[in-house]
Write a structure and sequence with these properties.
This protein has 334 residues and is of the alpha/beta class. A hairpin with a 5-residue loop joins strand 1 and strand 2. Helix 1 packs across helix 2 and helix 2 crosses helix 6. The two termini are 21 Å apart.
């Protein structure tokens, strides 16, 4: 569909793909603005969907919005369009996270779409966070190399830690869970974004529904976050998780909001590539939510100065789709 023929329909289609991105507690902290009769689309963070207890500096919000931005790029490439993206275009408005201009190929151009990005499109609606047990089968080195390459394309580094570093990170995840259990405000905030189907809960189009909690863990080997800790749903299954979780750390040299947006785009590229490779994944931000633990996740001497996300990879159930707000709730046409 040419952009100039049906601009609103085109932009709506792109936004419908963009919002399949993951976000912290599925808060979906994004807002898109399309200026009529232009090819521009602005991405804003939504402060009403911030998480002051879990994400006081907004790093997680930027990661989620960066993931949505990358999905927008994938969708555009799939349709043969390029994207010119400017991060943080207005210094006066920190919530104005990005401007995207759609570029339609001309008669003398084979197409401006980003090489390889369109190939990720089939994974957009197949990528789901998995909080289920994975097998103990190790991920081949060539697949891990491909995931590292995916992160590099977005200016980030993906580190697959050695055994001692992996053990340290997993210990930090468990430490974070203890911190969380003792923080009333944090526990209340998490509870406000979980959905059990009981009366009085928030909208069904956001948050983590109970069917996506996964089984209770038997033992403490896996770092999957348990969103049922405050609800204790009856009849929830119990399962043994993998003995040696396979984890990876995503980071950048610096720690500015622009770096968070780049990390969000890299996070989503890695997740989409993993989905195409048949690898399931879950995201872990628990130790990154505590300043006293976050710095300890980094391997001493590593070129990655700041860690923004921890991944758990493996072979097992992909997880189930969680709800998304419809495009008309997140897209404004001016």
């Amino acid at each position: 569909m040419p952009i100039t023929d049906h601009p609103v329909e085109t932009v709506t289609s792109l936004v419908e793909d963009a919002v399949t991105a993951p976000s912290m507690h599925n808060a979906q902290p994004w807002r898109f603005v399309h200026r009529a009769d232009t090819r521009s689309l602005a991405l804003y963070g939504d402060p009403s969907r911030s998480l002051p207890a879990s994400d006081p500096d907004g790093r997680g919000l930027h990661l989620g919005c960066g993931a949505a931005l990358f999905n927008l790029r994938v969708s555009a490439a799939h349709h043969g369009w390029g994207t010119a993206t400017e991060l943080l275009p207005d210094p006066r408005d920190p919530w104005h996270l990005a401007d995207v201009v759609l570029q339609e190929p001309g008669p003398a151009e084979p197409g401006p779409a980003e090489p390889g990005t369109a190939d990720l499109y089939p994974a957009l609606r197949k990528r789901h966070t998995s909080r289920f047990p994975f097998s103990d089968e190790r991920i081949p080195a060539e697949i891990l190399d491909g995931l590292r390459g995916a992160a590099r394309l977005e200016g980030c580094r993906l580190i697959v830690p050695g055994s001692w570093h992996s053990d340290t990170v997993l210990d930090l995840v468990r430490d974070a869970e203890l911190f969380e259990s003792a923080d009333t405000a944090l526990r209340k905030e998490i509870a406000s974004w979980t959905r059990t189907g009981r009366a009085g809960e928030g909208p069904a189009t956001e948050g983590i529904p109970s069917y996506a909690f996964g089984p209770r863990q038997y033992g403490v080997t896996a770092p999957a976050r348990d969103f049922d800790a405050l609800h204790d749903l009856p009849g929830r299954a119990v399962a043994v998780f993998e003995a040696r979780p396979q984890i990876a750390l995503l980071g950048t040299m610096d720690d500015s909001p622009a770096d968070w947006l780049r990390a969000g785009q890299a996070m989503e590229r890695v997740l989409l590539q993993a989905t195409l490779d048949g690898v399931s994944a879950s995201l872990m931000s628990q130790p990154l939510e505590w300043p006293e633990l976050r710095s300890l996740t980094r391997e001493p001497g590593s070129l990655t100065g700041f860690v923004h996300m921890l991944f758990r990879f493996g072979y097992g159930p992909r997880g189930t789709a969680t709800p998304r707000r419809p495009a008309e709730e997140v897209l404004t046409v001016e």
